[in-house]
């Protein structure tokens, strides 16, 4: 398992500052978990994780807050007809750029430390 770590600096006015960073995923990797360390971020902070290099991959949005947490993005398993199978879930497949954006924060350096757990 690879653990990728970056700090995100936010700039802008209090309550509306933003920042972002990119990670690089290998082809076929799964995003097992995202660890968020809110270093100096207010409770209004929203974080989104996207995989813009893969069309249709979902965006994971962590709602407003500033409590350190671990998020485990999951998608339902699909059958041969692309229908979701109830009660199933698997980690999100990613490749290429994985973008993490912070919004609704205060200006800080750093505001949030992000760890991606990839396998």
Characterization of the model:
There is one protein chain. The protein has no helices and eight strands. Helix content is 0%, strand content 60%. The chain has 119 residues and is mainly β. The termini are close together. Strands 1, 2, 3, 4, 5, 6, 7 and 8 form an eight-stranded antiparallel sheet that branches.
Keywords:
8-stranded antiparallel β-sheet; mainly beta; 60% strand; 119 residues
Whole-number radius of gyration? 15 Å
Task: Compute the number of helices.
Answer: 0
Describe the biggest sheet? 8 strands, antiparallel
Q: Structural class of the secondary structure composition?
A: mainly beta
Order of helices and strands: EEEEEEEE
Distance between the termini: 5 Å
What is the secondary structure topology, with strand pairs?
Blueprint: E1 2-10, E2 17-38, E3 46-50, E4 60-62, E5 69-71, E6 74-75, E7 90-105, E8 108-118
Antiparallel strand pairs: 1-8, 2-5, 2-7, 2-8, 3-4, 3-7, 6-7
Structure at a glance:
With 119 residues, the chain is an all-beta fold. It has no helices and eight strands.
């Amino acid at each position: 398992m690879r653990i990728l770590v970056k700090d995100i600096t936010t700039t802008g006015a209090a309550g509306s500052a933003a920042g972002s960073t990119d990670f690089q995923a290998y082809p076929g990797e799964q995003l097992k978990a995202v660890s968020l360390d809110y270093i100096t971020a207010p409770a209004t902070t929203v974080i989104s994780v996207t995989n813009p290099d893969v069309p249709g991959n979902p965006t994971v949005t962590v709602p407003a807050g500033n409590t350190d947490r671990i998020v485990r993005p999951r998608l339902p398993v699909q059958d041969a007809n692309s229908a979701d199978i109830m009660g199933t879930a698997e980690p999100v497949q990613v490749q290429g750029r994985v973008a993490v954006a912070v919004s609704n924060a205060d200006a800080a350096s750093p505001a949030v430390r992000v760890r991606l757990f990839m396998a």
